[in-house]
Write a structure and sequence with these properties.
Four copies of one chain form a homotetramer. In chain A, strands 2-1-3-4-9-8-7-5-6 form a nine-stranded mixed beta sheet. Chain A starts with a strand and ends with a strand. Chain A is α/β, with parallel strands linked by helices. In chain A, strand 8 and strand 9 form a beta hairpin. The first copy, chain A, has a domain of 151 residues: Rossmann fold (3-Layer(aba) Sandwich). Helices cover 25% and strands 31% of the residues of chain A. The interface between A and D is medium-sized, with 34 and 34 residues. Strand 5 of chain B pairs parallel with strand 10 of chain C, so a sheet runs across the interface.
């Protein structure tokens, strides 16, 4: 059983009627719902407004894969929780950072770059798979159409990914490395660009398939009790 | 001094008046001309119709970087010459494969895959740099516009590149890994997608800058006398 | 159920009494035996002396992962069979090349380099994992000791691997990239250096664990009916 | 002209007579001396005890490549200076981290992992090149012998390197990824393991050649005025 915690800052859905209509249970609710339909996945939720943002040691100890959605409140996440999440990733917890989570403190501290990019409201996207043998691409056979999506464009300031799985084509004339993986310590990381809060992107079956694949890919076969130690040999 | 040999199958420019008008000295002539303006580069030419396609041992022994343009006559290149070129790449000769050279025998034997792709006549492209620290990208600061270009799209069946430097956005709705590098033995390889024969793409200053950068990047600091040997240690 | 075909040239075990005593059922018999104990893996065998080396279209159509052990008879493998195996790898069949299979025609045509290396009789090896998050390393927690092993040393003329999982330390003073992965088309490839025919290396539980992990990693989630095609878009 | 700043914490050489005898001008003095003999390189020095550790905005603005040697005083480097160095790396300043600099704050914040490893006093090392086509390996044809060196061994907790250039073999039975590269933003990073303070390793011509090669490789063709920005397109 893969234990997933879906974390959401959960602000837009409460503040804007239009967004609440798209995601009445929150973005986390939508993601948790489709993940929970799989027999091998169980889901818990955590949000910014909970004590310690819902990410206590107890919660993270029982999390195999953490999904992160955040946008307007990155700086509200406490440094202590960021350090704790990083520690768990280095020990093997998988991390799936969605859309604007590229700018989360967690991603910045793990990747070391700015993760800055180009962006634009109101665009349309096609996702292409450039790594069909990768398990995250299993079952994705055609380009995925996102009728409405915010544009994220290059240059995207990330380290060289371990693997690049999806490229995004934007109607307005931009490309983006939309699905990329990294490893930090024992932890596997998948960054996936789709998912602007105003559009019902996480309801699309192929997007759900990719995130489900990513959960299975990122789940550790073993989580370490502590980060890799310094060892003096004799 | 970097010794470049520009190889061209040189058929389209002779057979079609429209293409001859674009490249009256052949595509190789155009490429050799802009490269030759650099003090550190000297250029020779070779074409399909020469004996041994102009790629004798003598010529290759004096070649630091081979540029390859071919399209309709890949199967006219003799297996012996292909094997010879491969041998020189493995010993350190740089190889720059342009546009439809992706399907050349030389590229297929070095990379091991089909290099198949999607394509379409009459499109328009924007090239984005996704690896600005790479020496091949030096001096390229803005997206490059190719008003007219043949579309090459994903999935492009190549091995995982060592580095991905440019992505192409096509107006008709496709993306492409347009500038990618590989290493085989001591030889550095750059595949660069732009350059359909009907359009004056190799006259664009930024395209010339990229190919010139690639020549300097691919030039070996040392070319081996033979391929890496099997060595039995004592 | 993952369908594995274990291919062995099966010459040493017949010709040398000492080797037969180590592998009385052939190296393929030993490998097939430990793989077959897994509920999700079923095993067939093929050897050089069979018609078409046991690798007919029928056999390969029903093979998810091909394991290859060869040493003294690489040039006895027909080019037709090599081409057929390559075709199936590009369509998604996994390939695990063991020890001296680095010099097989199959590996050379897929990787494009010489795969030459340094070597020496009668050494001792320690295998270190440098990629503990990789599924092929699952359950491998300590360096693996091979009391007796042939030395394979650098420089090993391979393309840059997708992932490097194990490094070998040899007592006589050499290192080797002993466990590396590649992708060609839809096919995943794992090269694993241990397994000289004179030593009972494939009986070691950790070696068996690695090969079993590799089988599961290399098994395709989908095998294509043909290699990736050229597609002209409209 | 490549402007190099050699930074050293410069403590061991003052505190221990034996180390002072090896490096009477400090490790930085030795490194600066051999680099300075090249017509295209000019050298400045900075040490921990200087105001702002010698790494003011003015100094970094005039630095193309920063070399870093530190060991026992990593935590004495102020967070402000670490952040400033990181900013310059992201803007294109090359960084060469030597030996125990793996544990510097600068490396940890750029790479995101612990950089923990195994270690042992009093060992002997052989360095092998596994990437002979890389410019950092130019002119290195044989394994490099370090008669006396501290052992650094795997598992080394780093992200997947962009390129792996050298592997280290240690007599006591360990291997190490001794020369690896990373890119962060516009900045190129080379980590190179040799150089324990008690042994005259930086006097060895081949070690000097590698560090000199690395300086030329890491020098930016352009340093940005600021880190890559967020850009809203219209």
């Amino acid at each position: 059983m893969i234990r997933v915690t879906v974390w959401n800052e959960y602000i837009h859905e409460r503040e804007y009627e239009g967004i609440r209509q798209v995601y009445p249970k929150g973005i986390h609710g939508c993601i948790g719902e489709f993940l929970g339909k799989n027999d091998d996945i169980c889901v818990k939720y955590a949000t910014l407004d909970m004590p310690e943002h819902g990410l206590t040691e107890e919660v993270l100890n029982e999390t195999d894969v953490l999904i992160w959605w955040g946008h307007c409140a990155h700086d509200k996440v406490s440094d202590e929780v960021v350090e704790r999440v990083k520690n768990h990733v280095l020990r093997g917890m998988g991390l799936i950072a969605l859309h604007s989570a590229h700018h989360s403190k967690v991603m910045k501290t793990l990747l070391g770059t700015t993760l800055n990019l180009h962006w634009k409201h109101g665009d349309s996207e096609k996702l292409f798979c450039v790594n069909p043998a990768h398990p995250i691409a299993a079952g994705i056979t055609e380009p995925i159409i996102l009728e409405n999506e915010e544009m994220y464009g290059e240059f995207f300031d990330i380290p060289k990914p371990d693997d690049e799985i999806f490229l995004g084509w934007f109607k307005s004339g931009q490309v983006f490395r939309s699905g990329v993986t990294f490893t930090r310590g024992m932890g596997k990381i998948f960054y996936f660009q789709p998912g602007h809060e105003e559009y019902p992107i996480y309801y699309q079956p192929q997007i759900q398939r990719i995130i489900t694949n990513a959960v299975r890919w990122a789940a550790p076969y073993k989580k370490l009790d502590e980060v890799f130690p310094v060892i003096q040999e004799e």
